Amino acid sequence: MAPNLIGIDFSTTATKVVRLKKNKAELVLMGIDQLPAIDFGAAARRIELPRNMAAHYGCLAYTGTSSVVRMVNAVLPEGQTELPEQKLRELLNVEDDYRVSATLAKRGQGRHDSSFLAAAVPEDDVQFLLSMFPSGPPAPASVEVAGLSFVPAFLNARGGECRDEAVCLIEAGDSVSHFVFINKGVVALVGKFGFGGRTLREKVAQDLGVDDELAGTILTDQSINISTTMNEVMTPFFKQISISKDFIERHQNCRISKMYVSGGLSLLPHWASLVEQTLHAEVLFWSPFENMQYDHPNIIPEDLAPQATRFAAAVGAAIGGLEES
Question: Which of 12, 113, 101 shows the shortest CA–CA distance to 62?
Fold first, then answer.
């Protein structure tokens, strides 16, 4: 694979595209753009990318509302690094209509289980994505769930500062949110929740008797305190993270004091303080464009700069592809 490729995140609100190249050990941002969202319920059509996004290969990520992401444990025979496909299907509880993959996170010693970061994606979703690239560049090199693809972007941006710590990452989008616990650079636990900005807008619209557009405006208005409504909607999500946090701290003898947030939901003015109060941890923001060079100083347009966090999945997908090249 060429050391110059694009990462595309097909989220429910927009299609985020970045172009990266690898210059020795450095990552270089070559381009960034945001296109309209793709309707997975319609017939797939060839995607037209801007000229500055020309590359031979593309690494694709998508929201994956029907996908499965999970840490799985199994005994791994000496000399092997992968689980048999059928065994992986059993652990993920999916049939042949899903594509499955897993990455070894931590090898168990002797007869102890090894841990794998595993995912299953509906075959129909894969075919839909691939059919948008019928011929010519970019050729799809990979398809993954956005809730996992953002992890390489985080490790590139902030991995150094938490190399010896246990931290939690929260990637909260419009329709799906994921959390990932990392202990000393190794993924320890992942979770997915069918909750996002859309859920919040619907609740605000219902409580205040307004339409969806006005509900979205209210959510972004710092002068309107809707923390009670937000807390009510997000309690199940936070409860799941809290239970997982306690589990990791007990079983891996560590303390999780930092929550790194990303995704569109993290841009809401009351989001960070609510996370901090509920989960009793410091909330930190990060950008997927940290710790990389820019092809030119103004490569990130002014209108997209405040939304950098929303490009984490696209950046992570591209980094994953470059690491394999």
Answer: 12
Count Cα atoms within 13 angstroms, Cβ side, for 85.
7
Rounded CA-CA distance 190/12 in Å is: 21
Q: Could you report the per-residue pLDDT of 239-293, keeping only the tens digit for each?
A: 999 999 999 999 999 999 899 999 999 998 888 888 998 999 999 999 999 999 9
Half-sphere exposure of 185 (CA within 13 A, CB side): 7
pLDDT along the chain (325 residues), means of 10: 82 94 90 93 89 90 91 87 92 94 88 90 94 89 92 95 94 93 94 90 88 87 79 89 96 94 90 90 95 92 94 96 83
Give the span between the Cα atoms of 282 and 161, in whole angstroms.
Answer: 14
pLDDT in the model for residue 304: 93
Q: Which of 104, 84, 50, 138 is nearest to 317 (CA)?
A: 138
From 319, 321, 320, select the one nearest 27 (Cα to Cα): 319
Tokens read off for 120: 């299953």
pTM: predicted TM-score of the whole model, two decimal places: 0.93
Would you tell me how many other CB atoms lie within 10 Å of the CB of residue 96? Answer: 10
The neighbour count for residue 207, using CB atoms within 10 Å, is 15
